[in-house]
Amino acid sequence: MSMATPEIDHLSESRVQGQAARRTRQLKSLALHVLIIGFLIFWFMPVLALFVSSVRPQADTATSGWWMAFVRPLLSAQNYAMAIDQLNVGASLATSVAIAIPTTVLTVLLSVIGAYALVRMNFAGRTTLSLILVALLVTPPQITLVPLLKFYNSVSLSGTIPGIWLYQVGFTLPFGIFLMRGFIASIPRDLYESASLDGATELRTFISIVLPLSRPIMASLGIMAFLWSWNDLLIPLLFMGGSAMSPPITVNLAGLVGQTTQGQGPLMAATFLSVLVPLILILSAQRYFVRGILGGAVKG
C-alpha cells in the first residue's frame, strides 16, 4: 500500500494539472472570441449607424442620435426613394459599376498575363522591365494628371468611361503584376515540366495550370482593384468633367454634401447605397482575399 501511494498521488497531480491546463486554454479561447466579437462590433458600428440614419424620418434624424431608433423604432424607406428620384443616385451607381467592373477585369487579366511572362519567359530586358514595375509602385499618379488630361483632350478621351479605364488600369497594373508574380513564382517547377513532357504549349500551360492555381490571388487582386476603382474620387472628377453622363457615386456624393437641401436622410441613404456594394463584395469573398494574400507568402 505504501508503494502504491506515490503513484496514486502522481496520477492525481497529473489529472489536476491537465484540468488546470484545459481551463487555461478555455479562458484564452473565450478571451480571444470576446476580443474578436468586440472588434467586429466596433468595425461594423459606423455601417450600422449609417443604415439606421438612412431609414429614420427627417425630424428624428435632426433632433436625436441614431441609437434612439432602438428606443422609438419609427422607420421609413422615404429617404431611399428621394435619393433615387431626386439625387440621381441610381444613374450614378450605374456609372460606377460601368467603370469599376471593366477596370477590375482588365487589371486582373493583364496582371496575370504580365506576371506569367516575367516568371516563365526569357526575353531581352526582362530584368529592366521588372525594375521599372517596382519603380512605378512608388510613383505618385498625381504627377501625371495634367499631362494626361491634356492628352485626353487632344484625343477626345476626356469625359468618357474608357478614359477612366485606361488611367485606373494603367496605375493599378504594376501592383497587380508584382502581386501575381510572387504567387506564380511559388508554383512548383515540376508542374511546368510535367506539362512540357505531355506536349503542352505555353498557352495550354497558362490556361490549364496557372489560371486554376491562381484563382485565390486573382480574387484578392480583383477585390482590391474593384475597391480602388469604386472609391476613386479624383480621377472621375477630373477626367469626366463636362460629360453629359451621370457622375460616379463618389463624385455625386461629394457634390451633394454641400448642395443637398433635402436634409441628411437622403444623403445618408445615398451614402449607404454606395457602401453596400463593396461591403457585400468583401463579406462574400473575404476567404478568397485572405487565401490569395497569403498564397505567395511562402515559396514552395
Structural class by helix and strand composition: mainly alpha
**What is the CATH topology classification name of the largest domain?**
MetI-like fold
Largest sheet: none
Please estimate the helix content: over 70%
Q: Name the average pLDDT.
A: 80
CATH class of the largest domain: Mainly Alpha
Radius of gyration: 27 Å
Count helical runs.
Answer: 13
Q: What is the β-strand count? A: 0
- The N- to C-terminal Cα distance equals 59 Å
Low-confidence stretches are 296-300
What general form does the structure show? flat
- Tally of distinct domains: 2
Q: Which sequence of SSEs, written as H and E, runs from N to C? A: HHHHHHHHHHHHH
Beta content comes to under 5%
Supply the CATH architecture of the largest domain: Orthogonal Bundle
Q: CATH H-level name of the largest domain... which superfamily? A: MetI-like
